[in-house]
Design goal:
1019 residues; six-stranded parallel sheet; binds iron/sulfur cluster
């Protein structure tokens, strides 16, 4: 591929291999420029591609950069000739993987996630009394973690805080800080004992290591000819020191970034790194690095860019304005509605009008500053039949299907979670009334021990009340029936989810609660929306790994809560499916993406730009903020002593960052930008006072070319904003919705009586009220029933693992040990997701994004990867009779095997059972256990009431081109399979978990714990 560089790009290319800072404004073709620079170095300066090292911020960006380079340099398709691209953390991890033992870190140490780190801090925190810290406040743990992160960002240890503490003994904030540091010392010790490190450790330990052993840095430096740093504005001081330790002092370093898109300063990024790059990375003759800029924006039209430049000016008054590369006609529209619903309606109508004129839904996006603003838009767009893709975790949790799935996970994990249970019981599946729940609650109260220290200290849960519902008086027959239905499903799920992975658990809940059937029954657009959201959530569950044993439901729920509370925690930009749907995403996740049409809602004062949650980061007031004198950078060196002045200083810094977030939001739009707000927000109860337009709204509104689509009157405060759980058609009696009606009934019961009489419903209403009264206040007492006991269960995956190495099974299922994140499994699950969608008849092949789903665990040259192999196989032409079919099959010894068959192709009485593998052919005999289990399942389990007359079982390997391995499963084959499965499960029951080393030890997550495996690998 060859393109003609612009004058700005050519000026950079002409500099050759030397140190350069490239200020690349939004939409100026940063990735293309980096790829051009690299190909120029290879083509004209004799630097081999494999001697070029690239670093960027996320795995996705690293992959995109490598892909872009391959477009310009086809020779880099050869793995031996590839440019080496890492994330910043990934590079530090590689240093430790190579030289870690010199710093006391094993080369196979695991890296723990922030969630696991938080759990570990919690464990050590409660061991010791901390008189200065509030041990009852959950946020204390987060604050300790934040202090730990900041220490890491500035290459410090908690002991550095303790050393400085003696001069601050009278200062309460300092004493809190000391106790936090003591907790962090214990946390570091706990990590050391577990043989793990966290993200901050990767950089701090590798930097110390290289400083203590300069020849190591020299050895690394000699491997490369040039270093290219992407998104350099988001690096923290520790990362900068790591890079200068190896590559400072004249090595050619090219840094690309945009200080006006630094939106992660609050989590450690230091814009000072980018500002001072020219001094930190001098050229080989000792002069400051070259300074260049890209200002020609190819994405947005001039109208949008003028506004973006104005927004940017608020954060950086000296920034060079962006220029539009062409005028392809832009439109900026503002709207100010009465309330959030009116605003969402307006956006929906704008998008509908564009779609009617031929704009695809996928060229439209709604960008949110906060997760809390998602639900209204999700609800209103749903009612407008607009297909949606919610592309960040926090927003996804507000989608009804996902919210319900999360509630089920929560109840299975913790039967005491009454809020989640009530959500399920009040939802469309069971439709219980408040009166029914009140009956159960009163029974619970009557049953609960009066004295907290009585002999039966276990609290009785609502689930136990449901178990006993047949014997509780006061429940209507219909409610009893529904509670029994719920309980049956709950019991089954409790048993069936034993031993399943997180994603399998989610899938089983979807199956057992008939969520898929509900989704399939929806009209086409809501169906697509629901499927996309559910698949995104399943991908998340597949992808997510705590590195502490198996991914537990509890840790996953904890992670979801974190994501819900802090949208900016999702660092990586969103990965979109490419489906024909409007994207809903937070601004932080939208960085790096673009759409023809972008709407930014809820632009009201205090929301966008937003106020900091928990106050400005003042180290004088807050113990978890690192004192100025400890920092490696000088960005807050001028922090005033006077409290008011300090507040003003921090406020200004905070809002500069918020303006940068606004700049990122505005520059996502190519052609149309819709900016809106409203007076009344808050679900279901609106805020007490109306909002007003924010300064961001005013900037957009006051631009000379902006179209004002309306500005509503403030009007009276609505009683209630229609919530997502209210149906499309208002109830003729309660036009403001049931929540307003409930409030009215509580405040003035007579008004409801009068309303009923007015509509001729007086008698019926009186009858219902007295019936409910009776149920609420006349209850019988009933003894709780026994809880179900779990039958021995094993998943097919577990059984295959056991067949290969019982010890590996033991460490993954019986006594779980930390394990590595499995990228191959993630890729495999993506391919499976696409196959599943295709088999359900949803996705035409030509809509697939090439490259995105083609990754396989063992990539093969030239075939484009696994999905392409599927696409060209006979299976793509066939329609499966069953897709992702779940089963549970019981063996003679009482063990139940659970699993899910990828596809069953039915041809009359003949069935072909197929398992798709994303990797290359592998004839390891233990894999056959999977087909054995499937063959027994299709013989024993009535799938939709039918059974096959003859069966073939097939592995379809998609990596390196399609390879099929198929076996006829006749009666004798199935009998042998059954015996083998019984033998394996008997062996599990007898507790046989010896090591069984083999080639698979190379890829075993537990190799670091397994001496037998290590010997195998060494040989
Ligand atoms: S390293 Fe090898 S022998 Fe050890 S548990 Fe893993 S697979 Fe089994």
């Amino acid at each position: 591929m060859s393109i003609v560089p612009t004058a700005e790009q050519q000026a950079i290319l002409d500099l050759g291999p030397t140190s350069i800072r490239v200020r690349a404004g939004a939409g100026t073709g940063k990735t293309t420029t980096v790829a051009l620079v690299i190909s120029n170095l290879v083509a004209h300066h004799g630097i081999a591609p494999e001697r070029i090292l690239g670093m960027t911020f996320t795995n996705k960006a690293a992959a995109e950069l490598a892909e872009k380079v391959a477009e310009f340099l086809p020779e880099t398709v050869d793995p031996a000739r590839q440019v080496e691209v890492h994330t910043y953390h990934g590079f530090a991890a590689q240093v430790l993987a190579e030289y870690g033992p010199l710093a006391g870190v094993g080369t196979r140490s695991g890296v723990i996630t922030p969630t696991f780190g938080r759990q570990l801090i919690r464990d050590v925190f409660y061991h010791t009394p901390r008189p200065h810290l509030d041990m009852t406040y959950q946020g204390t743990l987060d604050r300790i973690r934040k202090l730990g992160d900041q220490l890491g960002d500035h290459l410090l240890r908690p002991e550095d805080i303790l050393r400085a503490s003696s001069i601050h003994r009278e200062d309460d904030v300092w004493m809190q800080r000391v106790e936090m540091a003591e907790t962090l010392v214990a946390y570091n010790e706990a990590k050391r004992q577990l043989g793990v490190v966290d993200y901050a450790d990767l950089v701090t330990i590798s930097t110390r290591l290289l400083r203590d052993h300069p020849p190591l840095g020299q050895a690394i430096r000699e491997r490369y000819g040039v270093l290219v740093l992407d998104e350099y504005q988001d690096t923290n001081p520790a990362q900068r020191v790591l890079i200068t330790t190896i590559f400072g002092d004249g090595f050619p370093v090219i840094a690309v970034g945009d200080e006006d898109q630094t939106i992660y300063e609050w989590r450690g990024a230091s814009a000072q790194n980018f500002e001072e790059f020219t001094g930190h990375f001098p050229t080989s003759d000792g002069r400051p690095a070259h300074d260049t800029s890209l200002t020609l924006n190819r994405r947005s039209g001039p109208g949008i860019l003028e506004i973006a430049n104005e927004i940017r000016h608020r954060a950086n008054p000296t920034a060079e304005p962006l220029e539009a590369a062409g005028d392809h006609g832009t439109e900026v529209v503002t709207y100010w509605g009465h309330d959030a619903l009116a605003e969402a309606e307006w956006i929906a109508r704008q998008f509908e009008a564009l779609h009617e004129q031929g704009t695809p839904w996928s060229e439209m996006a709604v960008l949110f500053r906060k997760n809390k603003d998602f639900p209204v838009v999700v609800d209103v767009f749903g009612r407008h039949d607009i297909p949606l893709e919610v592309a960040n975790v926090g927003g996804l949790l507000s989608v009804p299907e996902i919210s319900l799935l999360r509630a089920w996970l929560s109840v299975l994990q913790n039967p005491e979670d009454s809020t989640a249970l009530a959500q399920i019981l009040f939802g469309s599946g069971y439709r219980l009334g408040i009166a029914d729940l009140a009956v159960l609650t009163r029974w619970l109260i009557a049953k609960s021990p009066e004295e907290p220290d009585s002999e039966d200290p276990e609290p009785i849960t609502l689930v136990e009340a449901i178990e006993a519902s047949d014997e509780i008086g006061g429940l209507s027959p219909e409610a009893r029936k529904r509670l029994n239905r719920f309980h049956e499903i709950y019991r089954h799920l409790l048993v069936e989810t034993q031993g399943l992975s997180l994603a399998e658990t989610c899938r089983l809940i979807l199956d057992r609660t008939r969520a898929w059937q509900d989704i399939e029954a929806l009209p086409p657009n809501p169906r697509l929306t629901a499927r996309l959201n559910v698949y995104r959530f399943l991908d998340l569950a597949d992808d997510w790994s705590p590195l502490s044993g198996r991914p537990s439901v509890a840790a996953f729920l904890d992670y979801l809560t974190t994501m819900e509370e802090e949208p900016a925690e999702e660092l990586d930009s969103a990965r979109l499916s490419g489906e024909e749907a409007v994207t809903l995403v937070t601004v932080h996740r939208a960085k790096g993406l673009e759409w023809e049409n972008v709407a930014i809602p809820a632009v009201f004062d205090g929301n966008f730009p937003s106020m900091p949650a928990g106050g400005y980061p003042d180290p004088v007031r807050f113990a978890h903020q690192l004192p100025v004198e400890f920092r490696l950078d000088t960005t807050v060196a001028d922090l005033p002593d006077d409290e008011n002045a300090r507040r003003a200083f921090l406020r200004e810094r905070h809002f500069a960052q918020e303006w940068r977030v606004a700049y990122v939001a505005a520059t996502r739009a190519k052609r149309r930008l819709f900016v809106s707000g409203a007076y009344w927000y808050g679900l279901p109860e609106p805020r007490v006072t109306p909002t007003k337009p924010s300064p961001l709204f005013e900037i957009v509104e006051s631009h000379r070319d902006t179209i004002d689509a309306g500005h509503a009157e403030v009007g009276p405060r609505p009683d209630v904003l229609r919530s997502p759980d209210r149906g499309a058609d208002p109830d003729p009696l309660f036009t403001d919705g049931w929540q307003a009606a409930l409030r009215m009934a509580m405040e003035n019961p007579q008004e409801v009586d009068d309303l009923a009489i007015q509509h001729g419903l007086g008698d019926e209403y009186s009858r219902l009220v007295s019936e409910w009264d009776e149920r609420l206040f006349a209850l019988d007492e009933v003894a709780p029933m026994d809880r179900p006991t779990a039958a021995p269960t094993v998943s097919v995956t577990g059984l295959v693992t056991y067949a290969q190495c019982p010890k590996r099974f033991y460490w993954s299922e019986v006594d779980p040990l930390p394990r590595r994140h499995n990228l191959a499994a993630t890729r495999g699950s993506e391919i499976h997701r696409r196959i599943e969608l295709h088999q359900k008849g949803t996705i035409p092949f030509d809509e697939l994004e090439p490259g995105l789903y083609d990754a396989v665990d063992e990539p093969a040259e030239g075939d484009g990867g696994g999905y392409k192999a599927y696409e060209s196989s006979r299976f793509a032409e066939l329609r499966a009779g069953y897709v992702e079919a779940p089963f549970g099959v019981e063996l003679e010894n009482g063990f139940t095997i659970r699993g899910r068959i990828d596809a069953i192709y039915v041809d009359g009485g003949h069935w072909e059972v197929v398992d798709f593998k994303s990797g290359r052919r592998n004839d390891d005999p233990s894999r056959l256990v999977q087909l054995e289990a499937y063959a027994v399942a299709v013989n024993d389990v009535p799938f939709s009431g039918s059974r096959p007359e003859s069966v073939d079982v097939t592995f379809a390997y998609l990596g390196g081109g399609l390879a099929e391995v198929s076996t006829p499963a006749d009666d004798s084959w199935v009998q042998a399979a059954r015996s083998h499965l019984t033998e394996l499960t008997d062996s599990i029951r007898q507790g046989r978990f010896d090591e069984s080393p083999g080639p698979w030890c190379h890829h075993c997550d537990f190799l670091q714990f397994c001496v037998v495996g290590q010997n195998e690998v060494a040989e």
